[in-house]
């Protein structure tokens, strides 16, 4: 028993002798990795699909870690994403007086926990789990379209989407350059693989009129639901003040109602991080 305690104490002392705490701060930019279809762009040149990920955009991270020895460590981090605009729907047909532009972007807070491995004193890798702990997907819509030869519809709205708690993967390879024993600079290539299942949405801002006469959300919804051009009928599903997204609906349920089938939206990305690390002793 005494030998076991002595052996454990020696191992603990050896690990502690080379252990090291650190914190790092970084910023960077991510691009889409999922390539998921978002919608379409319709112009006089034709119809084109749009692809992307809500994970694209500027991001910042703050991480803290602990190295058990010169090779292995663990790390936890938090980050914020200010996503780039993604086109959900664009219709630009001036000759027909039809203009619809719906764009969305992610604004998300995330947290991660990773294992870190040093390949050399300068090159390292990390991989672990990622969750989205807050934020939203924000959608802005601008619609200007002729309903008839004498009626012009104008709509401006903002819709916020909340999602269920997701779990994803994070991995990175980085290179660090030591400025001193306490400070180093680093650059990383990072992959985040995560998707968010929509839970609820709310129209937070809304204004609409026909030839200057105000229209309600319900009236705009009816306009699109009954529009003679079937291309515009799906827009009726957007115009509910609040929507709950569920995994199943009863037979015959209104697909444009206040309960709609949920869907997964991509936040996956490839990114570059540049930052600094501060060490707290060995």
Structural write-up:
- With 282 residues, the chain is mainly β.
- It has a single domain (19-279), classed as Porin (Beta Barrel).
- Helix content is 9%, strand content 63%.
- It contains 2 helices and 17 strands.
- It has helices at 2-18, 217-225; strands at residues 20-32, 36-43, 46-52, 57-67, 72-83, 86-93, 98-118, 123-146, 152-163, 167-178, 183-193, 195-210, 213-214, 242-246, 259-261, 264-266, 269-279.
- An 8-stranded antiparallel barrel has the order 1-4-5-7-8-10-11-17.
- The model is unreliable at 1-18 (pLDDT under 50).
Please indicate the count of domains: 1
What string, H for helix and E for strand, traces the elements in order? HEEEEEEEEEEEEEHEEEE
Percentage of helical residues?
A: under 10%
- Annotated CATH architecture: Beta Barrel
Strand order of the largest sheet: 1-4-5-7-8-10-11-17
Short descriptors:
about 280 residues; mainly beta; Porin; eight-stranded antiparallel barrel; 2 helices; about 10% helix; elongated; disordered N terminus; Beta-barrel_OMP; Outer membrane protein beta-barrel domain-containing protein; signal; OMP/PagP_B-barrel
Write the layout of secondary structure elements.
Layout: H1 2-18, E1 20-32, E2 36-43, E3 46-52, E4 57-67, E5 72-83, E6 86-93, E7 98-118, E8 123-146, E9 152-163, E10 167-178, E11 183-193, E12 195-210, E13 213-214, H2 217-225, E14 242-246, E15 259-261, E16 264-266, E17 269-279
Parallel strand pairs: 2-6, 14-15
Antiparallel strand pairs: 1-4, 1-17, 2-3, 4-5, 5-7, 6-7, 7-8, 8-9, 8-10, 9-12, 10-11, 11-17, 12-13, 12-14, 12-16
Keywords: Signal
Protein name: Outer membrane protein beta-barrel domain-containing protein
Signal peptide: 1-19
């Amino acid at each position: 028993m005494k030998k076991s305690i002595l052996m454990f104490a020696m191992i603990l002392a050896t690990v502690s002798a080379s252990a090291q705490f650190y914190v790092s701060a970084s910023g960077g930019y991510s691009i889409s990795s999922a390539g998921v279809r978002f919608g379409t762009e319709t112009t006089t040149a034709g119809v084109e699909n749009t692809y992307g990920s809500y994970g694209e955009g500027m991001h910042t991270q703050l991480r803290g870690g602990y190295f058990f020895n010169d090779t292995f460590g663990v790390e936890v981090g938090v980050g914020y994403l200010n996503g780039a605009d993604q086109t959900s729907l664009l219709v630009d047909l001036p000759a027909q007086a039809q203009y619809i532009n719906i764009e969305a972007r992610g604004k998300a807070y995330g947290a991660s926990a990773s294992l870190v491995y040093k390949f050399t004193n300068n090159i390292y890798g990390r991989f672990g789990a990622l969750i989205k702990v807050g934020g939203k997907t924000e959608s802005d819509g601008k619609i200007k379209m002729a309903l008839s030869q004498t009626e012009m519809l104008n709509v401006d709205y903002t819709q916020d989407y909340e999602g269920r708690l997701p779990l994803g993967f994070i991995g990175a390879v980085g290179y660090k350059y030591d400025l001193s024993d306490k400070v180093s600079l680093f650059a990383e290539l990072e992959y985040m693989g995560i998707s968010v299942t929509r839970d609820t949405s709310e129209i937070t801002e809304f204004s609409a009129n026909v030839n200057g006469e105000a229209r309600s959300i319900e009236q705009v919804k009816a306009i699109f639901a009954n529009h003679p051009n079937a291309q515009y009928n799906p827009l009726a599903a957007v115009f509910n003040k609040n929507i709950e997204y569920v995994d199943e609906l009863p037979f015959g349920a209104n697909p444009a109602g206040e309960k709609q089938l949920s869907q997964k939206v991509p936040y996956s990305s490839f990114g570059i991080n540049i930052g600094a690390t501060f060490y707290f002793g060995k």
